[in-house]
Amino acid sequence: MAFIDAHREILKKELDDIRQAGIFKEERIICAPQSSEIEVIFPVGSKEKRVINMCANNYLGLSSHPEVVDAARKGLDHRGYGMSSVRFICGTQDIHKQLEAKLTEFLGTEDTILFPSCMDANCGVFEAVLNEQDIMIADRLVHASIVDGMRLAKAEQDTYKHSDMDHLEKKLELHKDRRLRVIITDGNFSMDGDLAKLDEIVALAEKYNALVFVDDSHASGFIGKTGRGTHEHCGVMGKIDILTTTLGKAMGGASGGCVSGRREIVEMCRQKARPYLFSNTIAPVVVEGALAVLNLISRSTERRDKLEKNTEFWRKGLTEAGFIIKEGETAIVPVMLFNAKLSQDFAKDLFEEGIYAVGFFFPVVPKGQARIRTQLSAAHESHHLEKALAAFTKVGKKYEILHKTKQEIIDRYGQ
Ligand SMILES: *Cc1c(COP(=O)(O)O)cnc(C)c1O
Q: Ligand 1 centroid vs 146 CA: distance in angstroms?
């Protein structure tokens, strides 16, 4: 059937509805390697502008690190550009196995299987491991890719209130007769930057004989004393049964993800996980780049230590300037504005000042909790953060939101 005018009209109408609702997403085009300073074209058709990047997941500043780029180039020379195959047919090179072994060592697990992305890892693992006799009990704020992965599985679903251990315990009690119970959580929740209480979760899992699943995409490489992740931070390394993570954030930022954890679970994914069986392998270039990243961050904690210092400076600076930020300790620092339009206007003014940050509002965050989410990087130098802080303060003054209570901001701008 042809794409007739009537079809086009249906979709145009839907797109118009999205625009009307004010939630139409527009890309900003970057004309430089990903870094703490980038050239951006926005809006489309305007001139390139050099800005400080406060919203990348480039936590360790490794996206364009020379050692990583060199390793990727070596991968290109030695193992070619593409694999033209899924892993189990003819898409596994020696370097894919090396990367899996290195991730196992770094994450402190038993075994690891690579996926094209962490989205794919999350979409594959539940269906591969669980059946209709099992129950998945998820934190209500887990990442969208986990929600999708749970939808694809035959096991039943339940949820617990965000980080509410009493509620989780009630659910574990309720489902105690199931074959398998899996507690499912993010390690570092990406919108608020708060960490899961993995020590308490593991204790509950032991009490109720449950498995623990953690998606550590916003933690691997920098949370914990040596950057292993949320499990290291909470003192439960070796006790996470299923750990998924991405190579697309702190760990070089290219692409790829994995399921790491109990040997049999990984083995089951190799047999049954559909995104592993039916989607192309990670390219050799990316595999070599990721190996270089793991070498770098296993060798020294210098970069995660610098990120920690930058985070402290930024959290303290914003608080002293009079902003309301989400309390916490991670490199995700949400600046609360509460009103959706204010978050958009604020981001636009920041861009004028040479600061690139994005305003989030419903449905990405709950209604009335609009914010600018800032993210720190080890690639930020003091002068970047000082300039960014000055810009935030200038724009904050303009909107008269500094040293105000949440209620005062809401009274003025609405929720
Ligand atoms: C970014 C993210 C993903 C997706 O990772 P990709 O490798 O880009 O697919 C999955 N889970 C969480 C929690 C994330 O933050």
A: 9
